[in-house]
Amino acid sequence: MRYKLLGRSGLRVSELGLGTMTFGEEWGWGASKSESRRIFDAYAQAGGNFIDTANRYTDGTSERLVGEFVASDRDHFVVATKYTLFDREGEPNGAGNHRKNLVRSLEGSLRRLRLDYVDLLWVHAWDFLTPVDEVMRGLDDLVRAGKVLYVGISDTPAWIVSRANTLADFRGWSPFVALQIEYSLVERTPERELLPMARALDLAVTPWGILGSGVLTGKYNLEDPTPEGRVRESKGQDPRMLRIAQEVVAVAREARCTPTQAAVAWIRSRPGLMIPLLGARTLQQLEDNLGALQVDLDRQNLARLDEASAIDLGFPHEFLERKHIRRLIYADTRDLIDDHRLR
């Protein structure tokens, strides 16, 4: 495992993060405490130090287990949690981005984690009710109080993130250093606005759902007459998603790796600062994910996956790439201009 700087910060995090939404069985499909411990230990032994949880995950059990697991070497681990989602249903101030929920949610997370501070606090999702300046000032107050070291934002439109960081820079508040989004071979729409914004603002991107809810493992492509197979069919998987999965399976066969490893390797090859979040219910699944560290897909296979999963970028991206428009914008000299900012 190698390490990367978390966006515009100096914080060092491992090149793969461990998502812990599976830690706990309260939701009916997670891992037991003992299996969660095995997953955690295997990740740590591989060099991983970046642990991602949230106040809502398995009704608080995820945070409790994470706190217990990191206790023996707290300073080694980078612990991230999230606020926004409710932990008290039917309570209007028990959810959202506002300052009251921010403070009460973080205090609850610190109690469950049994920590004095978290390394990274995410805004879990945008509520479209709380003013941007209230969110950024509230987060900055917690950083200044020493309860949070860095802040990030998840599941939020690009224009809001851009506005928030511009405001934070102007006011001298703590800016977002990382962006968490759904991103995979079957969900590439963040390439329209979110990923270009992240590169421009030097935000680390921590994609979740990197296996497309299991679609990219190829398991939904298998013919299965069992009751479990009929349940899979009833999920109504998009034919496009199944075609992409089929290509992943073919590339994996050629690269002599598993489809999971091929899908993770594709994510790791994408431009910008990518730190995929691994999610596993079993030790075997985690080990399969970690195997992606040993996989480097060649250009031909990467191109095959790009082509199979390509999306329309839409306006204005495709408009601005039209030949006659580029000629008008650059006076027919674009190919003569070197841009050192392109990476």
Task: Give a brief rundown of this model.
The chain contains 13 helices and 10 strands. The protein is of the alpha/beta class. It is globular and about 60 Å long.
Cα-atom Rg, whole angstroms? Answer: 21 Å
Q: Please trace the helix and strand order, writing H or E for each element.
A: EEEHEHEHEHEHEHEHHHEHHHH
The order of strands across the largest sheet is 9-8-7-6-5-4-3-10
State the helicity in percent bands.
40-55%
The top-level CATH class is: Alpha Beta
Taken from the alpha-carbon principal axes, the silhouette is globular
Average pLDDT, rounded to a whole number, is: 95
CATH architecture: Alpha-Beta Barrel
Oligomer: single chain
Largest sheet: 8 strands, parallel
Total helix count? Answer: 13
CATH topology heading: TIM Barrel
Classification by helices and strands: alpha/beta
